[in-house]
Write a structure and sequence with these properties.
about 375 residues; alpha/beta; de novo design (two linked rop proteins); Rossmann fold; 2 domains; about 45% helix; about 15% strand
């Protein structure tokens, strides 16, 4: 993995993720570089300050363009501002009021971008537990008519519907498959605003999303796949194991046991995980996450399963992929990405182009 910060894997991985989003129109590479030049390693205040400064600068450009009716320019800039505000709040603790403030500014910019012109995605509201879960439906490219295949894309501990749009969605829709991203319990605005914390029985929010998709006139209910990234590897596997409507399951990084493979394996994320599960102490968090496991669940999956994982993943243990594969009884494939080919880090962060191609070609074959 390329290490922008040579002695700091978590920060370097986040830089890589920003670069990946940049090549998918979620940011700009050179704007990212100019921001990073002013952020010393492990200087958390500088990280927040400089990304906020970049967000404000690009948001101002968006506002100026909108005032001149240059709506394409404005929309593009609002999307970049969304990404930079989101980056700014990333390392802040959940008790810090600046975190929700920056997140709200990010969502405001995204909403403004979405209101300009004709985006390639449409916001949807998925009925669930007396409220709704936000998502974005992205139709297959190529002018397909009638009911077609779709993949439900679920994020992990720190991803949500909006930023998933810049994590491979266009690579899916180019293959004639529609995609819907969703923000579920424990994620994004659902946990920050609606106070719905993450839950072990994630087949329920996934089932609600599948209910919504099955009713759409442009979706074939017999060709609905589920895909999860990072901790979403647990969510997606759980949903696909316990809902027989799922035609294929793609794990963009496995997560067999959230407690063993993530909480204990990557201490840096413990405070975030404690917050998204609604725990008041580390002990309570450990108790809650003990039920987030695929043991006795993954063997119920019947649809085809593809598991991808980096051999040197320092965020979610590679053991998660092997445990998931060993206990699955469905048609299954395991792809462990190695350092000599690229893709050995978390969710193939250092070889996304090849990983997207491999995963989404597999998906297209299963949904054809």
């Amino acid at each position: 993995m390329y290490m922008y910060y040579p002695n700091n894997s978590p920060w370097s991985f986040l830089v890589q993720r920003l670069v990946d989003e940049a090549v998918q129109d979620g940011a700009d590479f050179n704007e990212c570089c100019r921001t990073l030049e002013h952020i010393p390693d492990k200087d958390f205040e500088a990280w927040y300050r400089e990304w906020m400064r970049s967000g404000e600068k690009i948001e101002a450009l968006a506002q100026e363009a909108a005032q001149k009716s240059r709506f394409v320019t404005a929309g593009d800039a609002y999307i970049r501002a969304f990404t930079y505000y989101r980056a700014a709040q990333f390392w802040l603790g959940y008790e810090d009021p600046r975190k929700n403030s920056a997140f709200a500014r990010a969502l405001d910019c995204f909403g403004k971008a979405n209101s300009l012109g004709t985006p390639s995605y449409a916001r949807v509201e998925i009925p669930f537990a007396g409220t709704t879960l936000p998502g974005y439906f992205c139709p297959a490219q190529g002018g397909r008519r009638g009911r077609g295949p779709v993949v439900l894309y679920v994020g992990g501990a720190d991803t949500f519907a909006e930023n998933l749009l810049f994590m491979g969605v266009s690579r899916i829709t180019k293959r004639g498959i529609s995609c819907m991203t969703m923000t579920g319990p424990g994620q994004g605005e659902v946990v920050r605003v609606k106070k719905l914390y993450t839950r072990p029985d994630y087949e329920k929010p996934i089932g609600a999303a599948l209910d919504y998709l099955a009713k759409r006139k442009d979706v074939n209910p017999r060709k609905m796949a589920v895909m999860g990234v990072s901790m979403g590897g647990y969510y997606a596997a759980r949903g696909a194991s316990l809902d027989d409507r799922v035609a294929a399951c793609l794990l963009f990084g496995a997560c067999y046991s959230v407690l063993d493979d993530l909480y204990d394996y990557f201490p840096h994320i413990r405070s975030s995980l404690q917050w998204i599960v609604g725990a008041k102490s580390p002990d309570e968090a450990r108790e809650k996450f003990s039920s987030f496991t695929l043991k006795g669940v993954i063997d119920k999956m019947e649809c085809p399963l593809l598991i991808n994982h980096g051999a040197e993943d320092f965020i979610v243990s590679p053991a998660a992929a092997h445990k998931t594969y060993a206990e699955a009884r469905c048609p299954k494939e395991l792809r462990i990405w190695q350092a000599n080919e690229g893709g050995s880090v978390h969710c193939m962060g250092d070889n996304r182009a090849q990983a997207y191609a491999f995963m989404f070609d597999w998906l297209a074959d299963r949904l054809s």
